[in-house]
């Protein structure tokens, strides 16, 4: 399997090694033969948004060029197979409650690839809860009861578990009373309900929300959590299963390859990897020109830009974007999540999970699978409130892992999204007030340039793979209709000229 330059792994006998094998690395890295060609569409970015748009547009008959700065497809979602096991570096979990992603799973006949992450059949079947008051183990039933109680108090802004304020998560502003919570931070909401919370509940809420936001209590929007809560049907066990419960046995890169291969098989797709777009010029009436960092130039009738919010400022647009859009881009989003994989020499850890808050640099850990060697795979999450760059100090990282419970770590695997030049952060989470202020303008097009990304997807599962697919589908649909309309007008004009 080809090796991507992304990611790293550590073992005690080999130390840290940069780069990980990935099925999503495409060879050859470029298929463009004619650099003077004017494409129907150029798509910037080969994450799920770009792949969905490329698949749909090529299937509709349009000549499409896919440009990607990385050496692989997938963007912030990719997997690495190491010694026969799939380690998910970014987006991981899927569910039939996520309509856009499950449609694609069905489309590609992959329903038999679904696997549950939890497995409560092993001896160490408990949950570790570590706070400033000490550490204790509890059953998973006690865990769910505690966290359900805490999160319900947190989300219950209307006496109806949030259902009255946000009855439609895919149209979250349908009830305008939601705006009264738009500028509220997680810290603000915790302050509102502080007298209703036990210490355990306060720590439980803080850990859950910060794992979701990847930020701090002060810079994380409460409204973003309320949307997740509504999309999870206002129920903690349902939300937990939907966002952390079911993954693909084959790995996300194998899923992403289905999109790419279908587009490639149409013979209407061209692509260029390791190609960083630096400028998009739409000043010409009939054509958009794109320049890359290595001096290449591409042209198209339409452009779909899928560059994530936190790095969108690295692309220059001419004419300039609107002042409101530039302001939104400058604000960025707050998620600086650390996602760390640990292979543990203990098969009985397969039923374990835990939270450490507030003193540890990792917040949540959970057993997620069994490797072919019989070890337990655990995944850990941290946030920017007590940030850790896991590869900088392995001893410190191992200390953070062992703060949950004593573990014999054989391997660590990760990708640092905060230092990633094409992401500078993980999935989107807005600052208080930013979502209501900027979401609409982030979705606005710029002449023949459309902007599509899960970061501003118009749906309940924004920031998820589902939101990425939704955004790519909508952008492709718009472009298809416009180009077909232009083709019809050209055909009518030609007949009139005759």
UniProtKB/TrEMBL annotation:
<feature type="binding site">
    <location>
        <position position="49"/>
    </location>
    <ligand>
        <name>FAD</name>
    </ligand>
</feature>
<feature type="binding site">
    <location>
        <position position="277"/>
    </location>
    <ligand>
        <name>FAD</name>
    </ligand>
</feature>
<keyword id="KW-0285">Flavoprotein</keyword>
<dbReference type="InterPro" id="IPR001613">
    <property type="entry name" value="Flavin_amine_oxidase"/>
</dbReference>
<dbReference type="InterPro" id="IPR002937">
    <property type="entry name" value="Amino_oxidase"/>
</dbReference>
<feature type="domain" description="Amine oxidase">
    <location>
        <begin position="49"/>
        <end position="476"/>
    </location>
</feature>
<dbReference type="GO" id="GO:0097621">
    <property type="term" value="F:monoamine oxidase activity"/>
</dbReference>
<keyword id="KW-0274">FAD</keyword>
<dbReference type="Pfam" id="PF01593">
    <property type="entry name" value="Amino_oxidase"/>
</dbReference>
<dbReference type="InterPro" id="IPR050703">
    <property type="entry name" value="Flavin_MAO"/>
</dbReference>
<keyword id="KW-0560">Oxidoreductase</keyword>
<dbReference type="InterPro" id="IPR036188">
    <property type="entry name" value="FAD/NAD-bd_sf"/>
</dbReference>
<protein>
    <recommendedName>
        <fullName>Amine oxidase</fullName>
        <ecNumber>1.4.3.-</ecNumber>
    </recommendedName>
</protein>
<comment type="similarity">
    <text>Belongs to the flavin monoamine oxidase family.</text>
</comment>
<feature type="binding site">
    <location>
        <position position="381"/>
    </location>
    <ligand>
        <name>substrate</name>
    </ligand>
</feature>
């Amino acid at each position: 399997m080809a090796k991507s330059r992304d990611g790293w792994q550590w073992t005690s006998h080999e130390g840290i090694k940069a780069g990980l094998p990935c099925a999503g690395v495409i060879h050859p890295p470029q298929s463009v033969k004619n650099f003077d060609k004017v494409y129907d569409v150029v798509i910037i970015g080969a994450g799920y948004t770009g792949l969905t748009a490329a698949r749909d547009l090529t299937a509709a008959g349009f000549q499409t060029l896919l440009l990607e700065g990385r050496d692989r497809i997938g963007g912030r979602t990719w997997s690495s197979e190491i010694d026969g096991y799939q380690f998910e570096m970014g987006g991981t979990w899927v569910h039939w409650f996520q309509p856009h992603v499950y449609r694609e799973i069905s489309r590609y006949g992959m329903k038999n690839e679904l696997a549950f992450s939890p497995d409560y059949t092993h001896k160490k079947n408990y949950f570790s809860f570590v706070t400033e008051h000490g550490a204790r183990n509890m059953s998973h039933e006690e865990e769910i009861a505690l966290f359900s109680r805490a999160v319900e108090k947190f989300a219950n802004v209307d006496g109806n578990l949030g259902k009255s304020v946000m009855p439609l998560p895919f149209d979250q502003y349908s009830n305008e009373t939601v705006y009264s919570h738009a500028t509220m931070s997680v810290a603000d909401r915790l302050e509102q309900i502080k007298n209703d919370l036990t210490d355990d509940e306060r720590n439980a809420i803080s850990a859950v929300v910060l794992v979701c936001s990847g930020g701090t209590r002060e810079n994380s929007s409460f409204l973003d959590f309320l949307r997740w809560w509504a999309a999870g049907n206002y129920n903690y066990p349902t939300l937990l299963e939907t966002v952390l419960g079911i993954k693909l046995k084959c790995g996300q890169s194998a899923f992403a390859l289905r999109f790419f291969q279908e587009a490639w098989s149409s013979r209407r797709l061209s692509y260029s990897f390791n190609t960083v777009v630096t400028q998009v010029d739409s000043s010409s009436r009939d054509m958009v020109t794109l320049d890359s960092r290595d001096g290449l130039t591409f042209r198209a009738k339409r452009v779909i830009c899928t560059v994530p919010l936190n790095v969108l400022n690295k692309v220059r647009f001419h004419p300039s974007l609107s002042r409101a859009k530039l302001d939104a881009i400058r604000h960025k989003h707050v998620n600086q999540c650390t996602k760390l994989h640990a292979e543990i020499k203990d098969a009985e850890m397969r039923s374990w999970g835990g939270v450490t808050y507030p003193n540890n640099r990792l917040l949540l850990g959970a057993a997620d699978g069994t490797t072919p060697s019989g070890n337990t795979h655990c995944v850990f999450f941290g946030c920017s409130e007590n940030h850790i760059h896991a590869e900088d100090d392995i001893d410190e990282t191992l200390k953070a892992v062992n703060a949950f419970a004593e573990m014999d770590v054989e391997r660590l695997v990760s990708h640092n999204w905060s230092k990633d030049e094409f992401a500078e952060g993980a999935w989107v989470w807005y600052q208080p007030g930013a979502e209501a202020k900027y979401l609409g303008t982030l979705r606005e097009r710029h002449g023949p340039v459309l902007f599509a990304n899960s970061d501003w997807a118009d749906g309940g599962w924004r920031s998820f793979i589902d939101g990425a697919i939704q955004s790519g589908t909508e952008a492709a649909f718009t472009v298809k209709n416009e180009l077909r309309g232009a083709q019809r007008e050209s055909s009518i004009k030609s007949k009139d000229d005759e």
